[in-house]
Amino acid sequence: MSFNSIDKQLELIKRGVEEIIPEKEMLTKLERSKNNNKPLIIKLGCDPSRPDLHIGHGVVLRKMRHFQDLGHQAILVIGDFTAMIGDPSGRNKTRPNLTLEETKANAESFVEQAKVILDVDSLKIVYNADWLNTMSFSDVIELASKYTVARMLQRDDFTKRYQSEIPISLHEFLYPLAQGMDSVELHADVELGGTDQKFNLLVGRDLQREYGQEPQCIITMPLLEGTDGVEKMSKSYGNHIGLLDSPEDKYGKIMSINDDMIVKYFRLAVDADEIKLAEIERKLSDGKTNPRDIKRELAKALVELYHDEETALNAEQHFNQVVVNKDIPNEIDEYILEENLLLVDVIADAGLTKSKGEARRLIKQNAVKLDGKTCIDINRTLTPGDEIVIKVGKRRFLKVK
RNA sequence: GGGGAGAUGGCCGAGCGGUCAAUGGCAGCAGACUGUAAAUCUGCCGGCGUAUGCCUACGGAGGUUCGAAUCCUUCUCUCCCCA
Asked: Is the separation of the CB atoms in A387 and A401 below 8 Å?
């Protein structure tokens, strides 16, 4: 195969990235790859301890896809071994240490989800337990001797945690080293990661040098804030848009992001190029365009990216119907009544609320409608045979028969 | 090894014998409004009950007390200072 021109490759590679370190070496590697007609080895590590992927992960996965599209060799490193150590970066809390079996299962689900973005046919998947698990204690000690505590403490989250007196376990120091060994093992040319991974990625460079290899370049991607616009996107904050969320949910969740986040989402979540971004910024500041309409465009683009155009149109239509026109959607879950039941019981039992208490509260707050009419009667009973549509809040529906 | 401080609801963080299901902030949910599931404002925000009420909960286990998140003992974990 033949590679695109360096300039063309760089244009795509640089899109949306936070940093390329060092850019000069990136260029050298690209040139050599083109001259020798040999793909670069692009490494991305993933943490199988949290198997739910969201569009925040999508940012870096898309960058990986860019490299695939340019003809390079993408390698996904499943951190099944490191997951047993746990990586607390950024979350100030040690993660549970999982068993190998658990991480294997999670890894499979990870790949299943990543398929939405990556070209799985050309993707190489490796498990780092394959080489890390065979290291002896003395190997580990030797590895650890290559790094100093002071350098470790330079890592941003270690510094912060150390200063705020939050515990750092000794084994956490081994995580960056283990990740660095992955790069050594794979002879990685480039490693991708979020900005929070910068330190770990740099360790990979150092270790490759120690082991006599040419150091990898690192590419960091900005972290995408979640739908709250504050915290980084994460399932544990509940501010995520899942890769496996329904198209309607993806569309709706995008519509709920803060207006200030629109440009960032265009850049990171849907890969908009500079021309497009300029257009968006112009529209947002000209005072004539309603930000809502730009956000709709974003929502549609996102659904289209992860599904297809028709699905995006359906999601848009669903939004118009449910949110704008306050109508009921076409498809609603059904609930078959066997006997007379309290409305409150039905709502809770069907999972529209977490508890009966919550259901009762919502009724009191005028948030429950029966066939479009607000119901304020907490004692309302439903009888089998009455076909009725329950609406709770703005977007929870149930058809009762 | 010695000394000191601490562990509170999804998170942060008050409370330090009764009035504590526990101030406040964030997140979440709802209502109003709107340009949208933005922003803003208001309300809700452990479970069961229409409710006075009951149950579960302030790291674990005991104890003191009419009564404990609050006091004592002990265990587990964490941080700081000294060696």
From this structure: yes
The reply to whether A145 and A46 lie within a common domain is yes
Same domain, A26 and A121: yes
A208 and A263 fall within a common domain: no
3-state secondary structure at position A120: coil
ipTM over 0.90: no
The answer to whether the beta carbons of residues A337 and A401 sit under 8 Å apart is: yes
The Å distance, CA of A64 to C1' of B35, is 37
Using 70 as the pLDDT threshold, list the residues of chain A that sit under it: 1, 84-100
Number of domains in chain A: 3
Using the structure, give the distance in angstroms from the CA atom of A178 to the C1' atom of B1, rounded to a whole number: 34
**Residue ranges of E strands in A40-154:** 41-46, 73-78, 124-127
Q: Tokens standing for A347?
A: 């709502």
* A219 CA, B28 C1': Å apart: 35
Strand nucleotide closest to residue A319 (CA to C1'): B37
The string of DSSP letters for A177-224 reads: HHHHHHHHHHT-SEEEEEGGGHHHHHHHHHHHHHTT-PPPEEEEEPPP
pLDDT digits (tens, 9 = 90+) for A254-269: 999 988 889 999 999 9
DSSP A126-137: EETHHHHTT--H
